[in-house]
Specification:
By secondary structure, the chain is α/β, with parallel strands linked by helices. The chain has helices at 35-50, 69-86, 95-100, 144-152, 169-176, 192-204, 223-230, and strands at residues 3-7, 13-18, 23-29, 59-63, 90-93, 107-117, 120-129, 132-142, 158-161, 180-181. The protein has two domains: 3-94 and 190-230, 2-Layer Sandwich (Nucleotidyltransferase, domain 5), CATH 3.30.420; 96-187, ATPase, nucleotide binding domain (Nucleotidyltransferase, domain 5, 2-Layer Sandwich). The strands form two sheets. A five-stranded mixed beta sheet has the order 3-2-1-4-5, sandwiched between helices. Strands 8-7-6-9-10 form a five-stranded mixed beta sheet. A hairpin with a 2-residue loop joins strand 6 and strand 7. Helix 4 (144-152) packs parallel to helix 5 (169-176). It is globular and about 50 Å long.
């Protein structure tokens, strides 16, 4: 099954084509352009370079959040438009799972951490055992110090990955000491290939999301919604 993966939950835009046999291609940009400027051109370039036509696609997977509200909306709208126009099944993949998934093969705790602003991070905790994983803590927005205290309670080494790691490294080190490790920065991004691969696994089982009811997983309310509530 040939699946297009779309990742737009952060300032990084990443798209990929994946089948059960191989990664056909992936394009990732972190150059400050908005997703409305670069997402569709990236998809078009990817299809041209891999010599794949839209009609060759068999499914679409999109990063479903949490993350940038605007980025998630643009990615979801793009995925829905393509899925509806091409009559393809669509699946949403949790961003934090896609962020942690490149650590497949690692044995131990993996915490995906995204900068959520307002002194919070979006995060979750997984235990990886080679090719298998188990989710230990739910997707959530939390103060970094409180998250560090939760991780300490496991009394194990934790691999932290994501753009929320570097901004709070003093907190992680103070709480976890030498029980915290992190991969290099280029491995700490949610990639289109991870979204596509996880989506391909779901789609091969006949599992798909409803095109018309699917929404991003925001976890918390937007700034506009908070202002409205205060009024």
């Amino acid at each position: 099954m040939l699946v297009l993966g779309i990742e737009s939950s952060s300032p990084i835009a990443s798209v990929a084509l994946v089948s059960a046999q191989k990664l056909w291609g992936e394009m990732t940009l972190n150059i400050g352009l908005t997703h409305s400027e670069q997402l569709l051109p990236l998809i078009d370039d990817l299809l041209q370079q891999t010599k794949v036509n839209l009609v060759d696609l068999e499914g679409i997977a999109v990063s479903g959040g949490p993350g940038s509200f605007t980025g998630l909306r643009i990615g979801m709208a793009t995925a829905k438009g393509l899925a509806q126009g091409l009559k393809l099944p669509l699946v949403s993949i949790p961003t934090l799972l896609a962020l942690a998934f490149p650590q497949t093969g690692y044995f131990g705790l993996v915490s995906a951490v995204m900068n959520a602003r307002r002194n919070e991070v979006y995060t979750a905790l997984f235990r990886f055992s080679g090719n298998d994983y188990e989710q230990l803590e739910p997707y959530q927005a939390i103060h970094p110090q409180l998250w560090a205290e939760k991780l300490v309670a496991y009394q194990e080494t934790v691999l932290l990955t994501g753009d929320g790691v570097s901004g709070y490294k003093d907190i992680w080190r103070a709480a976890l000491g030498d029980k915290v490790v992190s991969p290099p920065p280029f491995l700490q991004i949610a990639r289109g290939a991870s979204v596509a691969w996880l989506g391909q696994q779901r789609l091969c089982k006949g599992d798909a999301d409803d095109l018309f009811t699917l929404k991003p997983m925001y976890i918390r309310s937007s700034e506009a919604e908070r202002k409205l509530a205060r009024r």
